[in-house]
Amino acid sequence: MSYHLLRCLLFQLPPEGAHYLTLTTLKTLARLPGCSSLLQSHDLPQKTTSYHFGLPFENRLGVAAGLDKDARYVDALAKLGFGAVEVGTVTPYAQPGNHKPRLFRLPEDKALVNRLGFNNDGAEATAARLQKRTSNVIVGGNIGKNKSTPNEKAIDDYEFCFRTLHPHVDYFVVNVSSPNTPGLRELQEKKALKKLLSRLQKLNNKMEGQRPLLLKIAPDLTHPQLDDILDIAHKTELDGLIATNTTIAREGLATDKKTLDKIGNGGLSGRPLTDQSTSVIRYLTKHKKRHLTIIGVGGTMTAQDAMEKIDAGASLLQLYTGLVYEGPSLVADILNAIALRENTGSVTERK
Ligand SMILES: Cc1cc2nc3c(=O)[nH]c(=O)nc-3n(C[C@H](O)[C@H](O)[C@H](O)COP(=O)(O)O)c2cc1C
Fold first, then answer.
1. Could you tell me if residue 232 is inside a domain?
2. 155 belongs to a structural domain
3. Based on the structure, what is the number of domains in the chain?
4. Cα-flanking dihedrals φ and ψ of residue 234, to 5°?
5. Is 178 a catalytic residue?
6. pLDDT tens digits for 105-150?
7. What predicted TM-score, i.e. pTM, was given to this entire model?
8. Does residue 278's CB lie within 6 angstroms of at least one atom of ligand 1?
9. Which residue among 50, 178, 269, 315 is the active-site one?
10. Is the C-beta atom of 245 inside 6 A of ligand 1?
11. Low-confidence spans in the chain with pLDDT less than 70
């Protein structure tokens, strides 16, 4: 069955229901001996390992945070051809997230709006699941704070998640850019951010086996705010930046205002975010003063979008909404476009 036909059926279901049905089916198929190989597209190019922040990525495309918040589907997602899976956002304690409905499709815009609010099983449950994974795909741990934790105590939450997930993940991402946890984005402010990242690096240095530490940023930051982020990234010796999370903007959408008003607040992802996220990547690449790996994410719906992010300076890519609208063949499309470029010798780890 073509993905577009399957999408018509899935789009008859509420978005969150469709999400879990798809991923549970994928996981079941991945475990069945005869079916597992069917998941892997025959169109995937040969693996070409490249090193980023010291880790060997089998390819440059990963699953963005939020798709597998609780590390339930890591092995199945690896079978689809992804080179990395970022789990989370994980908080210290399990929390239910916001009231439903909290995930909405904007089909005319090939977009999603979500205000899930870090629904997750908590750090210990996720660590236990990661311990049982069978694939050796690179796993990132995207960490945040519980909704009930005030910003003054946020550092304790990040440290708890860091310690708990440390044995089970290859790199960490500090998420201070989700629009769905009240006050979280205030942690992107210079002083608070520097304190948070310095404390995490201090903890990292004390651990047996340091993990690369990255920061995920919002697409709605001004240039002076991006300059501050770069400055802090350098001072706290971050390994990379993930650009970007979802946007709170609603400009230029095809979806009518009445529908948007009915949906209400939340982070917008998918096609409307493509250029905004690519511009942030371009700005960071132009203004960074030392090596910093940039993971490009936001509105990658086609192989061309992926190549534009690489041209803007991203060394690695992630996607979420593109998978919902275009299906798993997008993975092979993107990896083939990258392989074609690599064969002509122009995709290199950018310094
Ligand atoms: C339903 C949904 C849930 C998400 N949850 C998280 C999350 O928990 N943590 C996070 O850092 N980003 C989260 N994101 C943001 C994505 O990781 C990504 O940065 C954003 O959606 C832009 O990429 P895309 O256009 O390819 O979806 C979520 C996105 C969606 C659509």
1. yes
2. yes
3. 1
4. -70, -45
5. yes
6. 999 999 999 999 999 999 999 999 999 999 999 999 999 999 999 9
7. 0.95
8. no
9. 178
10. yes
11. 1, 38, 345-351
